[in-house]
Write a structure and sequence with these properties.
The chain is of the alpha/beta class. The chain has two domains: 251 residues, TIM Barrel (Alpha-Beta Barrel); 77 residues, Non-ribosomal Peptide Synthetase Peptidyl Carrier Protein, Chain A (Orthogonal Bundle). The chain has 14 helices and ten strands. Helix 3 runs parallel beside helix 5, helix 5 runs parallel beside helix 6 and helix 11 runs antiparallel to helix 12. Catalyzes the synthesis of 5,6-dihydrouridine (D), a modified base found in the D-loop of most tRNAs, via the reduction of the C5-C6 double bond in target uridines. Keywords: Flavoprotein, FMN, NADP, Oxidoreductase, RNA-binding, tRNA processing, tRNA-binding. Its EC number is 1.3.1.-.
């Protein structure tokens, strides 16, 4: 199917998403420091937090505890900004959604119906587990929509719980009927986790089952070229980039340029990527202190090195750092200095 190109901005409620490229909420990664790195490069029409456990938030609120670390930066940072929450109780979700709207002034409240991790699904009966019970999803969404009005509520789902129980078309109708302002679909089932390839044909098919709300596709978008292909080929209003942007916060600006028809900016040089990582590190340390911040940064540092020549040696060494001095020394000694292409050219 040939689609109009370039894709126009779309709306989530009254919020204009321009460019129509969203940054996915990712547990353990999309904290305030990472979001700032994405903003520095630009190109994302909507940025999202990590997913927040609504029940844990409510407990902290009732006991006058500090709100979750995953809400670090939310009150002060630039808008638009989406906060994603999860739980299976409509009342708890509505209560937390209202607090996010009133106290944090968020732009969008997103509901996670897609997480496939066992701790969320089998233990908490939340995330993608709820795809088994569309009526429960309806109750959660409708309660949140009422509590958060006029702030829009959105939902993120997978194709189904397993390849044998794909029900995304029916779930999409429920999501819209409950009052959600947009639907994001990851093109795998919960059972698939992140294996195999996202099924964009299935995602595109869902559009015919929606009446008015926009459809956002998610899965395997790891280059500007793939973002362009998704818009030209599939019936989606927006796309969401997830794992591919970890260690590559400039990916959004590259994709946005491609959608405009402008030359796609090249990846930053390895020296520039290293400097980007060090700025990211400083933001994390400023919030959590040297010890905790250094430990937290290990996983991000591995992402920045991924796919580069010598990445394995860097990962092995950065996984052991505990202080700023150790972190900077490992970066200086082991962060890749040559791309794989440069190494091939030299051999």
């Amino acid at each position: 199917m040939s689609r109009p190109f370039p894709p126009p901005p779309f709306k989530i409620g009254d919020l204009v998403i321009d460019p129509p490229i969203l940054q996915a909420p990712m547990a353990g990664f999309t904290n305030a420091a990472f979001r700032q790195m994405v903003r520095d490069y630009g190109g994302s029409g909507l940025i999202a937090t990590e997913m927040v456990n609504a029940r844990g938030f409510a407990w902290m609120d009732e006991h006058a505890e500090e709100h979750p670390d995953r809400l670090w930066g939310v009150a002060e940072e630039a808008r638009p900004l989406a906060v994603q929450i999860w739980d299976n109780d409509p009342q708890t979700m509505a209560k937390v959604g209202r607090r996010l709207v009133e106290e944090y002034r968020v732009s969008v409240v997103d509901i996670n119906f897609g997480c496939p991790v066992r701790q969320v699904t089998e233990k908490a009966h939340s995330g993608s587990y709820l795809l088994r019970t569309p009526q429960r999803m309806f109750e959660i969404i409708s309660k949140l929509v009422e509590a958060c009005s006029p702030t829009p509520v959105t939902a993120k789902i997978r194709l189904g719980c397993s390849p044998e129980s794909i029900n995304c078309n029916d779930v999409a109708k429920v999501v819209e009927e409950a009052g959600a302002a947009a639907l994001t679909v990851h093109g795998r089932t919960a059972k698939d986790m992140f294996r195999g390839h996202a099924d964009w044909d299935r995602i595109s098919e869902i559009k015919g089952h929606l009446k008015n709300i926009p459809l956002i596709g998610n899965g395997d978008l790891d280059s500007a070229e793939k973002v362009v292909h998704a818009f030209k080929t599939y019936d989606v209003d927006g796309v969401m980039i997830a794992r591919a942007c970890l260690g590559r916060p400039w990916l959004f600006s590259q994709a946005a340029a491609a959608l405009r028809g402008d030359p796609v900016p090249p990846d930053p040089t390895l020296a520039e990527q290293r400097d980007c990582m060090l700025r990211h590190y400083q933001l994390v340390v400023d919030r959590f202190g040297e010890e905790k911040g250094t430990v937290l940064m290990r996983k991000y540092a591995c992402c920045y090195a991924q796919g580069k020549h010598g990445a394995r040696y860097f990962r092995t060494n950065v996984a052991r750092v505990n202080t700023a001095e150790e972190f900077h020394r490992v970066v200086e000694e082991y962060f890749p200095s040559f791309s794989n292409e440069e190494v091939k050219a030299m051999s």
